[in-house]
Design goal:
2 helices, single chain
């Protein structure tokens, strides 16, 4: 007899627990949807930050390359100027040697011709260097 009385009670308890579970599940579903939306927002924010960081690093590398190009250009300009001075010095030495030889009469016509050809070659080399220097200065 006790079993017959207890069956409706057990049935009622089971039914109330099912109702309680059914009521709590929609809130869990809503919470899950909200957390999914928040996770999507966070992923988008992270993706945006990653893109921005990549863009900044690319910009920095481009700036570094530009700086290296400028330094290389300056180095080339300095070396061309140095080379021009060196050639002008050689031309001066050869010219003075030619003049001294003519005054003393020590140089033969063949030697004079050789010195003149060397001076002409150095002058043409120097004019090419001056053109290259002007080209480098325009790039600056």
């Amino acid at each position: 007899m006790k079993l017959k009385k207890s069956i409706p009670f057990i049935f009622f308890c089971l039914l109330s627990s099912v109702v309680v579970l059914a009521q709590s599940e929609p809130t869990k579903l809503i919470e899950y949807q909200v957390s999914a939306k928040e996770q999507l927002k966070e992923e988008k924010a992270v993706h945006k930050k990653v893109k921005k960081a990549a863009k900044d690093s690319k910009k920095r590398t481009e700036e570094e390359k530009a700086l290296k190009r400028e330094q290389k250009l300056e180095q080339q300009i300095v070396s061309k100027r140095k080379e021009i001075k060196k050639v002008e010095k050689q031309i001066g030495k050869l010219t003075s040697k030619l003049e001294r030889g003519r005054i003393k009469g020590v140089l033969s016509p063949v030697d004079i011709g050789k010195l003149n050809s060397k001076i002409e070659k150095l002058q043409s080399k120097n004019s090419k260097n001056v053109e290259q220097l002007n080209k480098l200065l325009r790039k600056r």
